[in-house]
């Protein structure tokens, strides 16, 4: 799904030092005051949503279970339900927030399938527009990405605040 999208800042991730801590786990424990900095959109009882710091496209969201597991089969029914509900909800809110025309949704299980962080299961939501190869402003310099991500977070986060049962 990502072959045709141009995302040079992914080199920073690919070449950069990988953090030793699991950032998905940290999203759950960091507290609301750190959500903006960590690009967390919503933390529910068993699952959470965040922006991808190394996006394939504008407003690339990820959803993950709160528990550090690597596969869908390791989730109990409640966790799985929470994750899938959050996936559906995130798609709906993403559509409202960005007025995208389509969304690619996928889970990459295992390195062979392209998982960047294979130890902590996560799903991707990538908004799409007709002829969107050039939708994302052409940002050739990796250093401007933090500003861009902060702006994207500010735009999307209000769409997640009215979600019932949200723990902020
Ligand atoms: Zn984890």
Model description:
This protein has a single domain, classed as HIT family, subunit A, CATH 3.30.428. A hairpin with a 3-residue loop joins strand 1 and strand 2. The longest helix is centred in the middle third of the chain and has 22 residues. The protein is an alpha+beta fold and 168 residues long. The protein is globular, with a radius of gyration of 15 Å. Helix content is 30%, strand content 15%. A five-stranded antiparallel sheet has the order 1-2-3-5-4, with helices on both faces. Zinc ion binds next to helix 2.
Based on the model shown, name its key terms.
alpha+beta, HIT family, subunit A, 5-stranded antiparallel sheet, globular
Q: Outline of this structure?
A:
The chain has helices spanning about 10-15, 25-30, 35-40, 75-100, 145-155; strands spanning about 40-45, 45-50, 60-65, 100-105, 125-130. Helix content is about 30%, strand content about 15%.
Q: Report the CATH architecture.
A: 2-Layer Sandwich
- Could you describe the largest sheet, including whether it forms a barrel? 5 strands, antiparallel
- The CATH superfamily label reads HIT-like
Backbone shape = globular
The CATH topology is HIT family, subunit A
Total strand segments: 5
Q: Which structural class fits the helix and strand makeup? A: alpha+beta
Q: Could you spell the SSE succession in H and E letters? A: HHHEEEHEEH
CA distance, first residue to last residue: 32 Å
Count up the helices.
5
Q: Please indicate the percent range of residues in DSSP E strands (runs of 2 or more).
A: 15-25%
Strand order of the largest sheet: 1-2-3-5-4
Extract low-pLDDT stretches.
134-143
Ligand names: zinc ion
State the CATH class.
Alpha Beta
């Amino acid at each position: 799904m990502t072959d045709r999208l141009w995302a040079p800042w992914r080199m920073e991730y690919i070449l950069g030092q990988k953090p030793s801590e699991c950032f998905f786990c940290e999203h759950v424990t960091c507290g609301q005051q750190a959500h903006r900095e960590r690009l967390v959109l919503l933390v529910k009882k068993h699952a959470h949503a965040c922006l991808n710091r190394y996006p394939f496209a504008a407003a690339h969201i990820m959803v993950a279970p709160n528990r550090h597991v690597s596969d869908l089969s390791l989730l109990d029914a409640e966790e799985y339900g929470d994750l899938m509900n959050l996936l559906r909800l995130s798609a709906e809110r993403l559509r409202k927030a960005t007025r995208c025309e389509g969304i690619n949704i996928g889970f990459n299980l295992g390195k062979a399938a392209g998982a960047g962080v294979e130890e902590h299961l996560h799903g991707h939501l990538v908004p799409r527009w007709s002829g969107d190869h050039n939708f994302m402003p052409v940002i050739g310099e990796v250093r401007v990405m933090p500003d861009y991500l902060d702006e994207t977070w500010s735009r999307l986060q209000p769409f997640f605040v009215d979600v019932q049962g949200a723990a902020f």
